Amino acid sequence: MSMSVICRWATRPAKWLDRVRLNPDGAVTIVTGASSGIGRCLCEMLSDRGATVVAVARRRERLEELRQRATVGKIIPVAGDITDGGVRESIIDVAANVRGGAVDLLVNNAGVGAIGPFADASPARLREVMEVNFFAPAELTRIAIKHLARSPAAVIANISSVLGHRAVPNKSEYCASKFAMHGWSDSLRAELAPRGIQVTLVSPSTTDSEFFDALVHTGADQTSSSIGSWTPDRVARAAMAAILARRSEVILSLGGKALVYADRIAPPIMNAILKQK
Ligand SMILES: NC(=O)c1ccc[n+]([C@@H]2O[C@H](COP(=O)([O-])OP(=O)(O)OC[C@H]3O[C@@H](n4cnc5c(N)ncnc54)[C@H](OP(=O)(O)O)[C@@H]3O)[C@@H](O)[C@H]2O)c1
């Protein structure tokens, strides 16, 4: 190999250095779970920066409030349950109508939690958590892909959890759903790279939202304690930065990083620490 070839190879721009950013101004975006918490903050941030946001959740009146506070036309509410295939079709139809079929960003954020021992829970709890947190976003993504492929800098942002990296007791259904989202995101990222679509996995730790008021199939005696919760606004700002930079994955909060990296380094120690007495 000649010296000039080696020099050209060594000085070529590294792909990760000249990564294309997602420009929110004029972008067509979809955010599920838009009626509260992280999703609501993301809708406000995206619409404030010039994006059109198809905002999805079941609580219609919350979406209407969101629409009224934004610049006219920037928030398009779609009220419905994402586990319903017809609702998913209408989300994509509405988004595809904004700019000739192209969609720039899909944020799979809607999610529910459940707390309590697996052995005592009903099969319905596992079914509901997996339907909302995994099957619905996966199927919504499947029908969005051909529209995302028409964007110059598309992103699928999956709002997962640090519990999709390290599981803990009494949240088995939730951990399973977020592990599923994690594995699926990694696979999809590799598959969609040739089509120019990035998959950004965002893993927050405990967030001070309505999440713990909306737990499914969970007794009032089941609670979860945590220190150092982030506000939804802070999580959304960090998620937004990762999305616009089209990063592959981001783990939020020091505590979250400590949990995930300690588990990667020494899983047996984490297993011993988390074992129920
Ligand atoms: N809070 C935490 O501690 C925490 C930590 C790590 C990760 N996360 C993840 O962050 C994401 C957002 O949670 P959050 O903390 O912002 O909670 P949140 O305030 O409870 O928001 C959840 C959103 O999901 C929507 N949603 C739930 N089920 C739905 C369904 N079947 N169809 C359509 N929308 C549905 C809710 O709206 P409607 O009720 O109006 O439908 C709501 O807008 C979730 O994926 C969650 O797993 C949360």
TrEMBL record:
Keyword Oxidoreductase belongs to the record: yes
E.C. designation(s): 1.1.1.100
Family, as annotated: Belongs to the short-chain dehydrogenases/reductases (SDR) family.
Cellular component GO terms held in the UniProt record: membrane
Domain of life of the native organism: Bacteria
Transmembrane segments: none
Domain Ketoreductase: 27-205
Name of the protein in question: 3-oxoacyl-[acyl-carrier-protein] reductase FabG
Pfam families: adh_short (PF00106)
Organism in which the protein naturally occurs: Rubripirellula tenax
Gene name of the record: fabG_1
Keywords noted in UniProt: Oxidoreductase
